[in-house]
Amino acid sequence: MASQNILNTPFLQEVGEIARFTGRFFREVTKPRQEWEEFINQCYFIGYKTFTLVGITAFIMGLVLTIQSRPTLVEFGADALLPSMVSVSLVREIAPVITALICAGKIGSGIGAELGSMRVTEQIDAMEVSGTNPFKYLVVTRVLASTIMVPVLSSLAIAISLYGGFLGANLKGDVSWALYWYQAYKALVFADFVPAIVKTIFFGFAIGIVGCYKGYTSKKGTEGVGRSATTAVIVASLLVFILDLIAVQVADVLGFT
Amino acid sequence: MCWVLPDTMESFESIIEVDKLNKSFGENHVLRNFSLSLKQGENLVILGKSGSGKSVLIKCVIRLIEPDTGKITILNHDISLLDQDEMDLLRADVGFLFQSNALYDSMTIRENLEFPLRRHWSKEEREAKAEAAVKEALEDVGLAHTIDMMPSELSGGMRKRIALARTIILQPKVILYDEPTTGLDPITGREISELMNRIQKKYNTASIIISHDMSCIKMTANRIIMLIEGRNYAEGTFENLIKNNDPKVRDFFEGL
């Protein structure tokens, strides 16, 4: 009886509902009649429309990281290692995680609010009565687009942040373009990129599925729409950190560190 | 219970049969053994107070809500036995006009009307016939000039007409109207009621109309079912029911 009460908490019910929603995604994604046109639209909205924000943030991130790391390295006489340190930090951890957090904010809240608003104004019901599977049209396309576009954005963010790092290194020092990139790449091996990109696929999936779940199951009118958008961001951001923690452990076990 | 069945309806073919439908939300029993039969070409009005289960009833009919028990047959198909694809195909024959209109607010009017076609027409059919079908549906509701506008640019009455155009674009055999005139001024409400009658004549549709707008009911109803406490409390034509002396029936027709 006591164990039943523990299992009956709202938190675990929510986890169960998200797991069921995710299960439905995997069932629907393999069924025929793919919504390619909507999928391409969503790739455009999620990828292209987020690129400017991600690009600016990545550039500042690389610049600031370099400027702030420089005094410490100078203190130890290791300022020559600045490009290497910046590139390893950005590629392995900072660029993928910061990109995912930006996407959780922009994409997660956008999907949560859009689907939530469609739910409370009966637009999702209208799709269903017109014979269109709204789950496939709205959820599957958005989750797939998010899963694909977050790694793409993250890769671009890595490149842009490294460029920001180059400018940062030249603000108070003098590192040539060729030397900076030579040192940045010398510190990296292919194994650094694999976990960095693979984990962003999971980040993208988590952001998409949480945003869609919160919006698709939205209740209680406009107040519910606001709550869906907010909780989508909070849960997706939290999941990004949890997945990052798991990814680091798995990469360690598999010898990628 | 007071039953007044109009004889004229018996000869028509049955389009929708609802048999002993029950639906509860927790302790709230919304529908209790509710039954109805909708005939070809008939306009059946379900009349009842707010919260009496009228909208739940038609959402059960289109399977947006699963009933607890009971059987619903549409065009001789028991909908509980249909899988999702079969139900989606059947939905081409059943139009649904939402109380809130439920227009897709990020799409133009043209895209709104084309949306139901994408599931039921092939790409070749859409390329060949969609433009003409959209224009015809818009002309039916007198709003051909709005084709490239957004729903947010239209008035409440115009949105209702566009929603109706989207409902009829697949030329369904039956249309379910969820409070079609609620929230509209009396003149626009009357125009919508006239439009419903015109569409019914043009496409020979049967309709279930959920309403408590007496003006709309008087203009559109061939038969009325009064839904009280989840039950079929009284049934008959407008003229039959207005003469009924049952206090609960009289409450609705008071002042007319």
From TrEMBL, chain A:
Organism: Algoriphagus sediminis
Key words, A-Z: Membrane, Transmembrane, Transmembrane helix, Transport
Transmembrane regions: 46-67, 143-167, 187-210, 231-251
Family: Belongs to the MlaE permease family.
Topology in membrane: Multi-pass membrane protein
Subcellular location: Membrane
Protein name: ABC transporter permease
Pfam families reported in the protein's UniProt record: MlaE (PF02405)
PANTHER family listed in its UniProt record: ABC TRANSPORTER PERMEASE PROTEIN-RELATED, PROTEIN TRIGALACTOSYLDIACYLGLYCEROL 1, CHLOROPLASTIC
Primary site of residence: membrane
InterPro entries: ABC_MlaE_roteobac, Permease_MalE
